[in-house]
Design a protein that fits this description.
single chain; 226 residues; alpha/beta; six-stranded parallel beta sheet; 10 helices; 6 strands
């Protein structure tokens, strides 16, 4: 892993990578759909919202209800904001090992960034678990879904984050929990680390040929302790 040890910046996905939010999202989405009068959604539709952002909510609306599209999406956002506030304040925890990893990166003067499909209006809420343990100030660049011309798997968010951190893609590594993250990282010309704490399993990530796959971000820390 010498090539990863020589990087200047490490950029992370958020959900399922730095915060343990994936299981809660499935339960939360089911609750929101019930509250606004939509039928239960298949797992792949919920997964798509988590990966691609709120634009994918439209796929959960049955054809016979599409005339209410704007109203239902607005209600989904309102109910989601209410539920997110409670969920991220009280229930969602950081992935174990994040404090040690951030400390190791800081000691090596490796800059830390975040490139996520989270919408900017939800960012403060979703960063609450990291703020709670005093790590928010360690993140020097945050790129939300609106902050780049195209969303992942396009490389745009990652390149925007690398630019803010001041290192070229070939001196950056992107860490994520799903195939879209690995695709985006490779498209950006970065090294990629897949972690198994989120949406995709080892075989799914392996098909995208990341630089390395770890069980979680905790397994990255030893690379920077030698």
């Amino acid at each position: 892993m010498k090539q990863i040890r020589d990087i200047g910046s490490m950029i992370f996905d958020l959900d399922g990578t730095l915060i343990d939010s994936v299981p809660a999202y499935f339960a939360l989405t089911e609750t929101i759909l019930q509250r606004i009068g939509l039928p239960p959604a298949p797992e792949q539709s919920i997964t798509k919202v988590m990966i691609e952002g709120m634009d994918a909510v439209e796929e959960m609306i049955p054809g016979e209800m599409m005339h209410r599209r704007n109203e239902l999406i607005d209600r989904f956002i309102v109910e989601g904001r209410k539920a997110l506030r409670q969920m991220f304040s009280n229930e969602i925890e950081p992935i174990p090992g994040i404090t040690e990893l951030f400390s190791a990166l800081s000691n090596r003067q490796i800059r830390i960034g975040l490139a996520t499909s989270t919408h900017r209006r939800f960012m403060d809420l979703k960063l609450t678990p990291l703020e709670r343990i005093g790590l928010l100030d360690s993140i020097e660049a945050i790129v939300a879904i609106e902050d780049a011309p195209q969303k992942k798997p396009a490389p745009d968010p990652l390149l925007a984050c690398a630019l803010q951190l001041g290192h070229p893609p070939d001196r950056s590594v992107y860490v994520g929990d799903n195939r879209i993250d690995i695709q985006a990282g490779k498209a950006a010309g970065m090294m990629t680390i897949g972690v198994l704490t989120g949406l995709d399993d080892r075989e799914t990530l392996k098909r995208e040929d990341p630089t390395v796959i770890f069980e979680s971000i905790a397994d990255i820390t030893p690379l920077f302790m030698k």
